[in-house]
Amino acid sequence: MRILFINNDGGGFADHIDVTDGTTVQQLFTQRIKSGTPQDYLIRVNRQPCSADQVLQSGDRVSITPTKIEGAAM
Amino acid sequence: MHRSSRAELRLALQLAGQLQQSPVPNVPSVPQVLWNRLTQLQRQIAVANQRGWRVAVNCCVAELRQTLETLLLELARLQTAVQPQSSTYRATARQMLADLESLREEFPQFEVDHQAQELVVQTESIELDEVYLGPFEIRLSYAATAALGLGDYRVVALDPQPAASDHEVVHPHVRHESLCEGDAQSAIRSALQQGRLFDFFTLVAAVLRTYNSGSPYVTLSEWFGTPCADCAAGVSDDERWLCENCSSCLCGDCMVRCTDCDDAHCHECTMGCSYCDDRCCRSCLQPCRDCQQLFCSACLDDYERCPNCDEPDESTESEDEEETTTAPDATVHTDGLGETAVLA
User: What's this model's pTM, rounded to 2 decimal places?
Assistant: First the structure.
């Protein structure tokens, strides 16, 4: 099935990807985010907070955004 | 969930339409001004070095470092802008409308300022390292989004708590209402290019809630002013003094003016004259030729002798008188340098 996956860590990737049926939020996080723990990220499914064991549905919009992002001085 | 108004629906349709029509990303201009400033600073450092202006060299080097960092960031932004798009994703009107609805739930306040053509989100009060900075408004111009494919946005402090040293800095990473995006730069640009409004606002808010002590406009430890080297009180740039000797920052109360040269110094770099106790810098204090103690120029005579050594030794004179009246066989012993003791 296809979902919209948005990774706001680093470059800000957003695209449709294929995942297997029954994939949970936790599994998608582990597959896609190589470093860091879920506690360091705001994970949303269809813009709503979700649980780690939530099973993804076709057409879902999943976004992963770091809770802490360092700014700088121009 | 908030029921979308017709105005928001129209706005989403308008934004999505314009986003589809503006596939060419805006390319930032080459940072020529920064490059010119770097070469100018390099010349100034060379001149200051030749003339031995140590404080000026330090100031120029500090600015050079900051300008260099800014130039690197600008170049990185330019590089990102000209790279081919890795994703062809563009938000649809329906997705944008869903973003607008979610923003109402995510932030304490969200509104569309139709007059200014801005989407306005208000954050909660932000406090970093126990420094209260207040709530902020993130104002995204949708007119700019439509025209350029990239959005111009401002970060406005609603309860401004500016840094003591620079009143335009209302957050360690916000100056002149402009956020320095740092690590979030690419993600924010992508969100704007793809019309992901919800992601854009949450990313900007995440930067506002984070303090990067490595690269702020003003560090939080110096938010209330640079600490005075002597009393540790915060001092603003307008009121601070720099020690001419060690370049440490001083408040007006702790700054000591050398009685001789009138230059500003810290307490550590001055000493009291051994006679009048006025404080002078170490280079102005001179030793007395006789006793070798340090004195200000006013307390040394033309022969570099202090008032103590310059005065005639009354005890010696009276002893000389006594010596002439004592028996000729009296024994005279040397008691100390320049002094004699007469024993009967």
Answer: 0.65
